[in-house]
Amino acid sequence: MLKLILLSSTTLLVTGQDTLFPVHGSDGVMKFSVNNDGSANLLGEFSSDKVTASTSLTSPSITAGTTLKVGETDVAGTFEANAADRAAMQQAIDKLEADSAAGQIAEQEQNARVEKIEADAATNAASDAELAERVAKAEAEAQMAAKAEEEQKTMLEEKEKAWAEKTAAMETAFNEKYEALEAKYKKEHDAQQKVLDQLVKIMSRFDVSGELESLRQANQGQPAATPPQ
Predict the structure, then answer these.
(1) Among 63, 18, 64, which residue's Cα sits nearest to residue 40?
(2) Domain count of the fold of the chain
(3) Judging by DSSP bridges, how do beta strands 30-35 and 19-24 pair with one another?
(4) Taking a C-beta distance cutoff of 8 angstroms, is the pair 197, 186 a contact?
(5) Is 29 within a domain?
(6) Residues forming a β-bridge with 9
(7) Which of 88, 68, 93, 89 is nearest to 78 (CA)?
(8) 195 assigned to some structural domain
């Protein structure tokens, strides 16, 4: 297995197995080797302006200082384009997040308005219910008052009728009593007048006719005549 690290024009090759051609340094440590599988191991740095592989070049990590091309693809340009795309995508994501946050704020405000509308509606419903109850109570009281007024009117009419009947009966009784007394007094007066008339006839033979006439006139309610001197 070959691990390749590219730094500008510098290539680092590390690790291998089945060493075929080892090269040791003065310190006794192997600095370079060629393996049976065709790979090479290098301890340190390998510098080259260009690295060419006939089939493939494999490495866990590749770093290019200026350009890095894979076939016809400019990896650095692709990275830059991808970076621009990622930046645009990040801007779009940021905008979506901002829009989402604004939407959440607007939704919270809308929910607050809806809750206020619902609270106002509940308050209005309670006020309407209270008003309806008061109207119903007022209508019931008005009906009771109208009924009481009607009963009072009926009772007053009955009392007025009874009083009129009683007054008429009293007037009839008074008239009857008055007529009876008047008839009685007239009868007594007529009887007295007859007696006086008889006395006048009797006393006319005597010289007391003037006094009798005065007595008769007084009994009839007329002023007495002055007797001749």
Answers:
(1) 18
(2) 1
(3) antiparallel
(4) no
(5) yes
(6) none
(7) 68
(8) no
Judge whether 15 lies within some domain. yes
pLDDT the model gives residue 162: 92
Do residues 15 and 1 lie in contact, with contact meaning Cβ atoms separated by under 8 Å?
Answer: yes
Between CA 88 and CA 80 the distance in angstroms is 12
User: One-letter amino acid identity for 4?
Assistant: L
Determine the pLDDT at residue 6: 39
pLDDT in tens, 196-214: 787 777 766 665 556 667 7
**Distance between CA 19 and CA 104 in Å, rounded?**
66
For 5-29, letters b (16+ CB in 10 Å) and e give bbeeeebbbeebeeeeeeeeeeeee
Query: At 86, is the pLDDT very low, low, confident or very high (cuts 50, 70, 90)?
Result: confident
Considering only CA atoms, which of 43, 41, 25, 45 is closest in space to residue 33?
Answer: 41
Does 12 reside within a domain? yes
- As a whole number of angstroms, the distance between CA 173 and CA 182 comes to 14
Mark 74-95 as b/e (b = at least 16 C-beta within 10 Å).
Answer: eeeeeeeeeeeeeeeeeeeeee
Q: Could you tell me if 224 and 218 are in contact, meaning their C-beta atoms sit under 8 angstroms apart?
A: yes
Domain span holding position 28: 3-66
Classify residue 51 by its DSSP letter. -
- Determine whether 41 is exposed, middle or buried from the number of CB atoms within 10 Å of its CB (0-12, 13-18, 19+): buried
**How open is the CA angle 40-46-47, to the nearest 5 degrees?**
140
> pLDDT, tens digit, for every residue of 49-80?
777 777 766 666 666 666 666 667 777 677 66
